[in-house]
Specification:
This protein is of the alpha/beta class. It is built from nine helices and seven strands, in the order βαβαβαβαβααβαααβ. It has one domain: Rossmann fold (3-Layer(aba) Sandwich), CATH 3.40.50. The radius of gyration is 17 Å and the shape is globular.
Length: 248
């Protein structure tokens, strides 16, 4: 699956799944434009990609701030003139009983995991429509498909991102724009590393393949949706979860 000549925007690209997506897409021939709040991590990822002779740029991005999203999109177009692929990876959450959540926590979870993909997708959509082509892939979560203990608002936000993607796919199909979702199960990322060990062990026990997912395995699913191999695929949800979610 090659992406030669394409420009791919990847949010949340300083670490974890976002970094893996950026690396996989660069290896497939795309020039990647990375966005993240973590400027140090973003710069390190760009340096590593460029060190392999591949193309990459990094610009600071706060997906919860409309002005930051607009500034990022402007810089992406100034650097590359065209954006063919947008991958919404930036996400955040933590395991906590719903009754212990604060309103500020709710807002942060929803702003990052739902409104982030909404605002970033919108920022690049007009030029995709003008061109009559484009790929938008959102990394949601299986929590948004079946729910997750201790992640109630997170599950709701990710479920919203899935529904948003399906509806956007219907609206943009006439413009030859494909919109799809990848839903990871428990994956070995810095975010999961912050989870108590007992929860990590419970995730592994509940997964039929008896291990955590790798960021690169999620990235491979994103690459499929971003490639021409998925030219007639839109509005779909692909779980990468080692069998944890077999229905729903």
């Amino acid at each position: 699956m090659r992406l030669d000549g394409k420009t791919a925007v990847v949010t949340g690209a300083a670490s974890g799944i976002g970094r893996a997506v950026a690396e996989v897409m660069a290896a497939a021939g795309a020039h990647v434009v990375l966005g993240d709040l973590n400027e140090e991590g973003g710069a390190a990822t760009v340096a590593e990609i460029r060190g392999r002779g591949q193309g990459a740029d990094f610009f600071r991005l706060d997906v919860t701030d409309l002005a930051s999203v607009a500034d990022f999109a402007g810089k992406a177009y100034a650097a590359r003139s065209h954006v063919d692929i947008v991958v919404n990876v930036a996400g955040w959450g933590k395991i906590q009983p719903f009754v212990e959540n604060t309103p500020d926590f709710w807002r942060k979870v929803v702003d990052i995991n739902l409104m982030g993909p909404v605002m970033v997708s919108r920022a690049f959509l007009d030029k995709m429509i003008e061109k009559g082509a484009g790929k938008i892939v959102t990394v949601a979560s299986d929590a948004g498909r079946v729910g997750s203990l201790g992640e109630t608002v997170y599950s709701g936000a990710k479920g919203g991102a899935i529904a948003f993607s399906k509806s956007l796919a219907r609206e943009t199909a006439r413009y030859n724009i494909n919109v799809n979702c990848v839903c990871p199960g428990p994956t070995d990322t810095p975010l999961l590393a912050a989870v108590p060990e007992k929860h990590r062990e419970a995730f592994i026990r509940a997964t039929p393949m008896r291990r955590l997912g790798k960021p690169s395995e999620v990235a491979d699913a994103v690459l499929f949706f971003a490639s021409d191999r998925a030219s007639f695929v839109t509005g779909q949800v692909l779980s990468v979860c080692g069998g944890l979610v077999l229905a729903g």
